[in-house]
Write a structure and sequence with these properties.
The complex is a heterodimer of chains A (114) and B (230).
Chain A lengths: L1 H16 L8 H23 L5 H24 L4 H26 L1 H5 L1
Helix pairs in contact in A: 2-3, 2-4
Chain B lengths: L1 H72 L1 H18 L4 E11 L16 H13 L4 E4 L2 E2 L6 E4 L2 E4 L2 E3 L3 E6 L2 H9 L4 H5 L5 E12 L6 H8 L1
Antiparallel strand pairs in B: 1-7, 1-8, 2-3, 2-7, 4-5, 5-6
Classes of the chains: A mainly alpha (114), B alpha+beta (230).
């Protein structure tokens, strides 16, 4: 519950800070957001499995974000639209994680393990 | 401890994540606005251009109206200009001239004489001599075999034939001259004049007075057009 409050606080702070990303970089940030969302949901899922580890979660969050952005950048240099790949992969993983979390919430961990 | 760890880490990350999302949201909103601004500025540029165009057209319209007014006010002036133009056209040889005058016919000598044959045919110089006399006697318009003589005309020798205005003409040469027939005839026939100097060679030169002859207009306007284009 607290993380959700944190998320709301973060979004509010971000909007009211008035900061914005320079033109041309927002595509990178968009993919970064996707990667981060995947990491967060992955963390939530890991927690449901009692496998959550702060180190893995934190490193995963930052590495995924940075890696995604770097891949997109590389794709842009080589004229390959890798953002589509990132969107597909991270989108699929997000849905996957969400469905696992939903299973857990509906059936409990034991049912999941079965 | 693990539960605690999860809460702290997740909350921290969620705050960070939220901030990123918020900033991105700001960016997207700003881009929407800037796109709208771009369209707006494009429209403004187009409007400005059209306004300038309209202003230019209005100015042109104004000046044209002014010109029309000037024309209307200056009907007398335009009449004068038209008369002047007609005079100039006449002077330049661009119109037919009809009037009294003489017809001079020059033909090669029919006498079969020994010696230099060149001496017995009509040369460009002979025609020029006649032309010069006619002009000096006040001929208003002269043509040679239908070629009107104007300021740029040339009568030149081109081998066995003669060219006038660049057009090949051959004997018999018929020279039309509008003017005072008596004066023109006298100019050619005076003792020691052109006719006298040519007759020893047997060159047939006839002068006929006519009450009405028509000298054709100069027709070669191509040269003039070229000159205008330059």
């Amino acid at each position: 519950m607290i993380p959700i409050i944190g998320l709301v606080i973060g979004v509010t702070a971000g909007i009211y800070s008035g900061f914005s990303i320079p033109y041309g970089y927002s595509a990178y940030v968009a993919v970064g957001i996707l990667a981060c969302m995947d990491s967060v949901l992955g963390g939530v899922y890991a927690n449901t499995q009692k496998e959550f580890e702060a180190k893995i979660f934190l490193s995963g969050f930052f590495c995924n974000g940075v890696l995604a952005v770097m891949l997109i950048w590389l794709g842009n240099q080589l004229s390959i639209d890798l953002s589509i790949a990132a969107i597909v992969v991270y989108g699929a993983r997000i849905f996957n994680n969400l469905s696992k979390i939903r299973h857990f919430l509906l059936r409990g961990r034991k049912a999941e393990e079965k | 401890m693990k539960k605690h760890q999860y809460s702290i880490a997740m909350t921290a990350i969620c705050i960070l994540f939220g901030i990123i999302i918020g900033v991105q949201y700001n960016t997207v909103q700003k881009q929407k606005v800037s796109t709208e601004n771009q369209r707006l500025s494009e429209a403004a540029t187009a409007m400005k251009q059209l306004q300038e165009e309209r202003d230019a057209l209005e100015r042109k319209n104004e000046s044209l109206e002014q010109t029309i007014k000037e024309y209307e006010q200056g009907v007398l002036g335009t009449d004068m200009m038209r008369r002047e133009m007609e005079q100039l056209r006449e002077f330049a040889g661009l119109t037919e001239i009809t009037g009294g005058g003489i017809v001079v016919t020059m033909n090669d000598s029919s006498a079969q004489k020994s010696g230099n044959k060149n001496a017995y045919i009509v040369h460009a110089e002979d025609i020029l001599a006649v032309l010069n006399e006619l002009n000096s006697a006040g001929a208003k318009a002269v043509s040679i075999n239908g070629q009107r003589i104007v300021g740029t005309s040339a009568v030149a020798c081109a081998g066995s034939i003669v060219t006038v205005n660049g057009v090949r003409v051959a004997a018999p040469f018929e020279i039309l001259a509008v003017g005072d027939a008596e004066v023109l005839q006298a100019a050619l026939k005076f003792p020691g004049g052109v006719v006298d100097s040519l007759s020893p060679w047997g060159i047939e030169i006839n002068i006929r007075k006519e009450s009405i002859i028509t000298v054709p207009a100069y027709t070669q306007t191509a040269l003039w057009r070229e000159a205008e284009e330059q």
